[in-house]
Amino acid sequence: MAENGPTLSLSLRDAEKIVRRLMPALQEHGAWIRGIHAMLICRTPPADEDLDPDAHLRSDLGRWFRDEPNEYIRRHPEHAIATEHHRRVHDVARNLCEAVRDGAEIAPADYELFVEAVGRLDKSMEMLAKELWDLLRYIDPLTGMSTRFALLPRLKQERERVRRTGYPCSICMVDLDLFKSINDTHGHQAGDAVLEAASAYLLRSLRKYDHIYRYGGEEFVLVLPDTRPDAARPVVERLRKGLAGLAIQIPGGPQLRMTASFGIAPLMPDHSVRDSIEHADEAMYEAKQAGRNQVRIWHQNT
Fold it and tell me: Which is the catalytic residue, given 78, 158, 218, 286?
């Protein structure tokens, strides 16, 4: 990022807007590249616009580089690099188009310049797009929480820390009780409102060093570093009681109450992180079977 000025960040909503603007431009650019290759192979007359020195500015991708309003992307160092690579691709393509127009032979070195320029632009655009897609992949759009795709790398890091230091880490599976009945009775809009409210409560009620992830549907996973399962229990009990006391207003409908079942397990240093998740899941199902709205701790060989 640029060193001067305020620090900028990219929100999930911003990333979605940028992707919607960028994807059609990239599709048009890909079609144009294929058209240049077809012209070279078939020796068909080049398009007039491809002979224009300003063709790169008139392309969809060129307009995206020029007009994209998001300041984070505009100040991203790869934006300027990709803009220059895009201009270079069109410059080299124009030289090839002029040769075809004039009936000249295409030197292998000139064609290689085109291929290299396209490759450099593709690399720059991949870096920009990856940042956008990573945000869309790792952040849940409804709740604003990190997703399970972000959870697994984090748990692997925590597992290595447990191995290295001997300090514990607990994980907790959280499943909203009878959530399907809310969707069935009040509709999916009500279900989304419950998920948003429950997520917001959990996010603001965590300890500052704990983390929460949306695992899927109405399931969440808490990561509690430096905390053994027995010490995690009162922390989780506080979350359980607070969630059960939360009044959730459904848009255009009634207030609802929501409880959840919680299952705690240690992050085991000598097992896969998926094993530890399964242990927490088993404890959570014990809480369900015991009547829901409860906390259970997983114990080995039980």
Answer: 218
